[in-house]
Design brief:
By secondary structure, the chain is an alpha/beta fold. It is built from 13 helices and 14 strands. Strands 7-6-8-9-10-13-14 form a seven-stranded mixed sheet, covered by helices on one side. The chain starts with a helix and ends with a strand. It has two domains: 197 residues, Rossmann fold (3-Layer(aba) Sandwich); 126 residues, Response regulator (Rossmann fold). Strand 11 and strand 12 form a beta hairpin.
Length: 376
C-alpha cells in the first residue's frame, strides 16, 4: 500500500536525524578522549594550568600531524580548585564521558585519593599524577606513575645535607593523610641514621604568617625539608630574608620549581629543589620537541619543569595509544601501557611492565640562582 506523502517525508526526516546521531556517535568514538581534573583556579592555579598546557600542547602538535591511528587526541580538563572533594566529583563526571580512554595528570596525591578508587572500579587507566607520594604508588591494576617517588627525592636531598654535618632537620608538611605520610618517609630515613626530624604542620591551602614563622624558627632548624606547595614555601623564604636569616631549604618537586621561583622572587636564591625530569634548558630531543609544541600552541611563557613533565606524560600516553591500535578502547590502552616496556621519549626513559607501574626513578637536585634560574 502506498504511503501518504507526509508519512514518507516524516520517515525520511527520522532517517536523516538518526543518521546525524549515528554520525555524531561515530565521530565521538573516533577520538582518544583523555580526562583530567586539575587546579585551574584557587591556591595552586598556576601549577594546574601548566600541567594542562604542557599536555595539551603535545596533543595539539600530534593532532596537526594526523593524530594517533588517524584519530585526534582530545584533553578534557575540569577545574578542581585544588580541592579533594571537587576532584572526586570531577572524576565521576569524566568517567561518564563517551569515548574516555584514560584519566591523566591529576595535580597531587590528595587530588587523586577519591579519583583512584573510581578509576579502579571502572577499569580505567589513571596515568601520571603529579606526585611521588605513597598513596599513588600502592599496588594497582590501573594507577601508573611517570615520576620517581618522594622516597627517591628525599633520600637524594637528605644524603646531601647530612653529608655536610647538618643534624637538626625540620620537615614542613601538610596536616592531612598525604602530608603525614611524607613526614613518615623523612623520619624513616633519618631514624636509620640515628636522627629524628622535627615536624611543622600546615593546613592545606594556608599560608605562613609571622606567628607561624616564629613557631617554625622556634624549632631551630639547621635545614628545612619542604613538602608543601610553592605558596607557603615562598612565604618561608621571604620571611627568612626579611629577618636577615638563611636556613638551607630543599623542596620536593611537588613545590613546582618555576612556581616557587616566581612566588619567592629574590628571596628564593639558594633554595634547592629536586627535579624528576631534566632541566628544561638542557639540550635534549624531548626538550626541543616539547618547547616547540608549547610555542606552536601559543604558550608565551618559557617552558618549565611542570610543562615538560606533562608533555612527557602526554607523549608516553600517545605511544601507548599507537601500540593499542584501538581508538576509544580504554581496556586496550591500559593493556598497551602495562606492556610498554622500555621507551625513550628523547633523552628521558621510562619502563613499564605487568609488575612495573612506575615509569622512572630519575632525580636531580637543582639550586635556585640569584637571577631566578635552576642550576643542576
Amino acid at each position: 500500500m502506498k504511503q501518504p506523502l507526509f508519512h514518507r517525508r516524516a520517515i525520511i526526516s527520522l532517517l536523516c536525524v538518526a543518521g546525524l546521531l549515528l554520525g555524531a556517535h561515530s565521530q565521538a568514538q573516533n577520538a582518544w578522549i583523555v580526562g583530567q581534573s586539575a587546579p585551574l583556579s584557587g591556591s595552586n592555579a598556576v601549577f594546574g594550568q601548566d600541567i594542562r598546557d604542557g599536555a595539551d600542547a603535545y596533543f595539539k602538535m600530534l593532532n596537526a600531524q594526523g593524530g594517533v591511528a588517524g584519530a585526534p587526541v582530545e584533553l578534557l580538563t575540569l577545574d578542581d580548585q585544588n580541592q579533594r572533594k571537587i576532584a572526586g566529583e570531577n572524576t565521576s563526571k569524566l568517567l561518564q564521558t563517551k569515548g574516555l580512554v584514560a584519566l591523566f595528570g591529576y595535580g597531587s596525591a590528595t587530588l587523586s585519593l577519591d579519583a583512584m578508587p573510581q578509576a579502579e572500579k571502572a577499569g580505567m587507566l589513571f596515568y601520571a599524577p603529579f606526585s611521588g607520594a605513597n598513596p599513588v604508588r600502592k599496588p594497582s591494576t590501573v594507577v601508573h606513575t611517570l615520576r620517581a617517588s618522594y622516597g627517591d627525592e628525599l633520600e637524594k636531598m637528605l644524603t646531601f645535607w647530612t653529608s655536610l654535618g647538618l643534624k637538626q632537620v625540620v620537615v614542613v608538611h601538610y596536616d592531612d593523610e598525604v602530608g603525614v605520610q611524607n613526614l613518615g618517609v623523612v623520619s624513616e630515613y633519618l631514624i636509620r641514621q640515628g636522627k629524628t626530624p622535627k615536624a611543622f604542620a600546615l593546613q592545606r591551602n594556608a599560608g605562613i604568617d609571622a606567628d607561624r614563622m616564629n613557631a617554625l624558627m622556634a624549632l631551630q632548624p639547621e635545614v628545612i625539608i619542604n613538602t608543601v606547595l610553592s605558596g607557603p614555601a615562598a612565604d618561608i623564604s621571604k620571611q627568612l630574608a626579611a629577618r636577615g636569616l638563611f636556613v638551607p631549604m630543599s623542596s620536593l618537586s611537588f613545590v613546582g620549581a618555576q612556581q616557587y621561583i616566581d612566588a619567592a622572587g629574590a628571596s628564593g636564591a639558594g633554595a634547592s629543589i629536586s627535579q624528576v625530569v631534566p632541566n628544561a634548558s638542557a639540550t635534549l630531543p624531548i626538550i626541543r620537541e616539547c618547547g616547540k609544541a608549547l610555542q606552536d600552541a601559543g604558550i608565551s611563557k618559557p617552558m618549565n619543569s611542570t610543562h615538560l613533565e606533562a608533555c612527557i606524560g602526554a607523549k608516553v600516553l600517545s605511544e601507548a595509544m599507537r601500540r593499542s591500535k584501538r581508538v576509544g578502547d580504554p581496556k586496550a590502552l591500559l593493556a598497551a601501557l602495562r606492556n610498554l616496556g622500555t621507551y625513550d621519549v628523547g633523552g628521558y626513559t621510562v619502563h613499564y611492565g605487568p609488575e612495573q607501574n612506575h615509569g622512572s626513578k630519575y632525580v636531580e637536585l637543582a639550586m635556585v640562582t640569584r637571577n631566578g634560574r635552576l642550576r643542576n
